[in-house]
Amino acid sequence: MVVASAMVAFQAATTLPGGVWQDDYKVDANGNPVKEPHMVGTSIMAHIQRMAYGQFMIFNPLAFLSSLSIILLLLSELSIKRGRWMWTQMVLMWLAITGQAITYFGALRNISPADMRGVLKDVTDVSVVCWLCLMGVVLMGNVVRLWHVQYGKICDSDERVDDGF
């Protein structure tokens, strides 16, 4: 699952929404410099929708690097019986999934026709708010669980439970 997450983020970065310019455009037909030049292989989205491209370039690497970090932690075997490492992996996975969700919606907005962008914006805004609310509920549930494990449970020998924290 984590490897698939990393691959999705990698694929999104190498196949940008909107594609890349297929030609150089530095001068017009008369040889005059153009106002907004572009070069072959550069992102069309970066030229046309700078804000959306900036958001894409924040959240996609976040998803990719979070996924790679989880893979590294799993391979290092430090996290097998340590609560902190498991907590770290869980937070990194949340970042990876959230980064991918935001990147996905940004890509959808970019490739949609102009007359559909208003409806799509409303749908993606509601979806992102619902996602963030779900993340908040999961976070609170984990904080309560952590508090309960650390301070609420008493072993048979009247010692606190050591979950690695």
Automatic annotation (TrEMBL):
Keyword list, A-Z: ANK repeat, Membrane, Repeat, Transmembrane, Transmembrane helix
Coarse class of the protein's main subcellular location: membrane
Domain PGG: 6-105
Topology versus the membrane: Multi-pass membrane protein
Coiled coil: none
Subcellular location: Membrane
Pfam families linked: PGG
Regions crossing the membrane: 52-75, 87-106, 126-144
Protein name (record): PGG domain-containing protein
Cellular component aspect of the GO annotation: membrane
